[in-house]
Specification:
single chain; 166 residues; alpha+beta; Aminopeptidase; 7-stranded mixed β-sheet; 7 strands; 27% helix
Length: 166
């Protein structure tokens, strides 16, 4: 695999990002929040928004993955959610881990105190990555989402304090 750079998402990534979203297999879409990958959202990702996004970019300019950090609001403003999406051809090569690490660093730079990630219970690889970065399982919500086939799936919520908890 060519070298991958982790960099802030910018307008010049728009076409590569759209191609990345198109490359997500139907099997993988089962594990992804549909609104996260809608084309309407993709267009907005390259504009100023409260969420912060980083992309893994190959030497050829293609996008191999994405991490999003979304700050909580109101009484949850000290928290943020992180989401990582990796192109299937880039899995098992450290891209997801690099994006997850970059997401943690980004959250810390934003002054976030507590970071959470939600994943389907069936996504053992994603959970293992975040557990290895110091996240802990905080909850399992049974039957929380329906996948694209209509089946109920459990969601696992993992969290990590980035500052000592009060």
């Amino acid at each position: 695999m060519p070298a991958v750079r982790i960099e802030p998402l910018a307008a010049d990534h728009r076409n590569a990002l759209a191609a990345f979203v198109e490359s997500i297999s139907e099997q993988d879409r089962v594990f992804v929040d549909r609104t996260l990958i809608s084309q309407v959202k993709v267009a907005g990702w390259t504009q100023a928004v409260p969420e912060r996004r980083l992309v893994a970019v190959d030497d050829d300019g293609s996008v191999g993955g994405l991490v999003t950090v979304s700050r909580g609001v109101g009484w949850s403003a000290h928290t943020a959610d992180v989401r990582v999406l990796v192109r299937s051809s880039h899995r098992g090569r450290g891209v997801g881990r690099a994006l997850a690490e970059a997401g943690v660093e980004l959250a810390a730079s934003m002054g976030i105190e507590k970071l959470t990630v939600e994943t389907m219970a069936a996504n053992a690889g994603g959970q293992a990555t975040f557990l290895s970065l110091g996240f802990q399982v905080e909850a399992t919500m049974q039957g929380q989402v329906r996948d694209d086939t209509g089946h109920l799936q459990d969601i696992v919520i993992l969290s990590r304090w980035l500052t000592p908890s009060s």
